[in-house]
Amino acid sequence: MNPAYLYDIHLPARMDSAKKYPVIFTLHGKGSNEHNMFGLVAPLADDFIIIGIRGDLPLGSGYQYYDLKSLGNPIRELFDEAVKKLQAFIAYATEKYPIDASKRYLLGFSQGAILAMTLALTMGDQLKGIVALNGYVPEFVKTEYPLRSVKDVSIFISHGEYDSIFPIRIGHENASYFQDLAPSLTFKLYPTDHGVSEDNQHDVLNWLQQDAGLMNKE
């Protein structure tokens, strides 16, 4: 079985061959690549397998997972295909590497956050949790996709208060949408534009360690 995407993988340096590990799949933003998100979660590399997934559509010097008709308006066929291929990739990686299937996390920024939230809704408790940084859920996902329960999925959503790409209103809409669906929802705002601050990173790292049942090493 060949993977649907090219990817970058970091295995814990001192792996126990008898053990399975939690995994973080990272999903980059438009025009970026599979290496871009690693720095955000590098402090967790001793305890998690970290896999950066590269979008398969070239965009400038980087990549994207799907293209847009306009800002906030994905080309539906490309978006649907990306969701399907990402689900297949997660299955592929889980079979190939010593991944604990009960502790699979997605972490996405911007376009990657849009996909992370969509995959939570389509995969349900096949995922342990997601981190969605500065994204949104397309309306057609909410109304037309076959959705699964996320009551057992841990969800961390954050948004920049001064986000010039996706206004703060969208962050509040995300929180409102998931609030009634996911008891384990964390929603945080940070005084940033369309990016990830040090405080945001710190909170994400702590949240992932705690949710996966790992001791906070700080």
Would you kindly provide a written description of the structure presented here, covering whatever features stand out?
It is built from 6 helices and 11 strands. It has a single domain, classed as Alpha/Beta hydrolase fold, catalytic domain (Rossmann fold, 3-Layer(aba) Sandwich), CATH 3.40.50.1820. It is α/β, with parallel strands linked by helices and 218 residues long. Helix 2 packs across helix 3. Strand 10, helix 5 and strand 11 form a beta-alpha-beta unit. The strands form 3 sheets. It has a 7-stranded mixed sheet with strand order 1-3-2-8-9-10-11, sandwiched between helices. A two-stranded antiparallel sheet has the order 4-5. The longest helix is centred in the middle third of the chain and has 21 residues. Pfam families: Abhydrolase_2. This is Alpha/beta hydrolase. Belongs to the AB hydrolase superfamily. AB hydrolase 2 family. Keywords: Hydrolase.
Features:
218 residues; alpha/beta; Rossmann fold; 7-stranded mixed β-sheet; two-stranded antiparallel ribbon; 6 helices; 32% helix; 26% strand; globular
